[in-house]
Amino acid sequence: MSTVAGTIPPAVVSPRGPARLRWAISDIATVVQRNLLNYLRIPEALFFSSVQPIMFVLLFRYVFGGAIKIPGTSYVNYLIPGIFAQTVAFGAVSTAIGLAEDLQRGIIERFRALPMARSAVLAGRTVADLVRNVVVVLIITGVGFAVGFRLQTNAAAFIAGLLLLLLFAFSLSWGFAVIGLTAPNSETAQVMSFPILFPLTFASSAFVSVQSMPQWLHGFADYQPVSAVTNAARALMLGGPTASYVLQSVAWSVGIVVVLAPLAVRKYRRA
Amino acid sequence: MADAIEARDLVKVYKGDVRALDGVSFAVEEGTVFGLLGPNGAGKTTAVRILTTVLRPDGGSASVLGHDVAKEPEVVRGLFGLAGQYAAVDENLTARENLRMIGRLNHLPRAVIGERTDPLLSQFQLEDAADRPLKTYSGGMRRRLDLAAALVARPRVLFLDEPTTGLDPQSRLDLWGVIEELVHGGTTVLLTTQYLEEADRLAERVAVVDHGRVISQGTPAELKARMGATVLEIGLSDSEAAKAAALALGRLEDKEPQVVGNLVELPADRGSQIAMEALRRLDQSGIVPVSFTLREPSLDDVFLALTGRHAEIEADEEQALARTQAGNRTSATSATGGAR
Q1: What is the DSSP code string of A223-238?
Q2: How many CB atoms lie within 10 A of CB A32?
Q3: Given this model, what pLDDT does residue B326 score?
């Protein structure tokens, strides 16, 4: 026993200034690592969460795609930027589920009683989900090219498009963190997410042209965030005017973080 | 010696005007074990959550090693370790990864974490399973890891919130052994428990908590002394026989015998004389007990004396309560029991 309680070190006092920031970054890194290990330790979840976007690619490419005509380009070229947007939007559910689970299992309670940065639980979750989204986006890139997607611009524009999508994914994670911290358990978090996700992803320009939708839907479908990021990614990957779409998409991403991240932080303090 | 933990008039009101804590005060001297004893919902966990800075009190104040929990929460968080009834360890990580994570979140240097991990794993008999994800662990192993994680930073103060609730008897005994060792090392421990035996065995001082108030405080021996010197415990073959025996005994030393399952319990100040009288009365009624014990009162008896209820009943033993009440009713009015 003397090994444990033999020497008592002086009390750890939390530092100020740069050292404090270094602690916060180290805490976030620790929580990110923990969250990523959690994803890796459930290979079934990892497998099926990668299969789902691939299914969407195949479904729209080979089942619905034949019936959808897009002027000026092939449907698969039109589809892939939309699939990216839809996939990262659906991926945000895992932020909600992850936080709800941690609350439910008492992990967050334990974190609160540790001398770690308050911000690390939420930031560690959203950053881990960003890393996960990078992997998912790479998988979709591979599958997209395999089913016939052809870049009509250049690699730099394509990468800019992916970065825009990842920024959107990160901001949406903060939004869904609010749901995760509100839901009583992970199942409810998931159920609460879908009524938000379905209109956002399907009443958007991700799969079909908004022009084909009824007039009353245009106002929503043209300007909502998934359409904005789809249009921006599409313009960057297929060509055409980009500035306005990119601006809209960045504005949405920044706006969501500015409004919902403080709400998530407040919920976290009270949860 | 200075008090390591102090709670002064703590009040916490939850939604719906539930007063979880209604003015709780106690002090824990450095290097001792203090037990907060009470049934489920008494307010024990709320007190621990306030002391560990997770919850803000609505009234009163508290300090750990002289630092106010509400004013200096960041300092306080660096001073204690916490292990809880929920064993909040990460299911999908291995034991080693869990310890490393907690060490890093305590901002210990990597080398120090590395040095401490293996001794902790072997001390808590987890070395064989150290690199397996926790999903494969038993409840007892999880609790041991939870406790090990609370010790990575070598805190001077340790909060143990119902450390053995839900464990099987052998795991409980093992964990008690571990906690006793810790105490010999000089760690200050605040332990909450609904097991009277646990407080009796581990704690030097005990506060009995009921409905958000401390209803009694002292050493386990002092608490027991308030109960009269001894308890006569007579075992019968079944609960019907116990009820019959209680009737045959009647009032002794002005105290009513209590039927608990197939036991009859009777507090007694002059133990041996009462025991002889009890045997005479049972003999006259032709009742032969299975067992006949004169024992020291347990903390459960203390709780019964203080609140009129058994301490462990509220949690998961409502059936036992129903049984006891039914028993009491029958001993008072035997006709109803016979009619049913």
Answers
A1: HSHHHHHHHHHHHHHH
A2: 20
A3: 36
For B74, the closest of A9, A26, A115 (CB atoms) is: A115
Name every chain B residue with its beta carbon within 8 A of the beta carbon of A109: 54, 84, 86, 88
DSSP-derived 3-state class of residue A8: coil
A44 lies within 8 A of chain B by CB: no
Domain segments of chain A: what residues? 18-270
Q: What is the ipTM of this complex?
A: 0.84
Chain B residue with minimal CA distance to A10?
B79
Q: Where are the beta strands (DSSP E) in chain B?
A: 3-14, 18-29, 33-37, 59-64, 67-68, 80-83, 157-161, 188-193, 205-210, 213-218, 230-235, 258-260, 263-268, 291-295
Compute chain A's Rg from CA coordinates.
21
Tens of pLDDT, residue by residue over A148-162, are 999 999 999 999 999
**DSSP class of B123:** H
Distance CA B202, CA B176 (A): 7
**Which H or E run includes B150?**
helix B139-151
The structure tokens listed for B102 are: 């907690």
Helices first, then strands: H and E counts in chain A? 12, 0
Nearest to B257 by CA among B242, B237, B240, B236: B242
Predicted pLDDT of residue B242: 84
By the 10 Å C-beta count (0-12 exposed, 13-18 middle, 19+ buried), B181 is classed as middle
Closest CA to B266 of B288, B291, B246, B289: B246
Collapsing DSSP to helix, strand or coil, B213 comes out as strand
Sheet hosting strand B67-68, strand order edge to edge: B18-29, B3-14, B59-64, B67-68
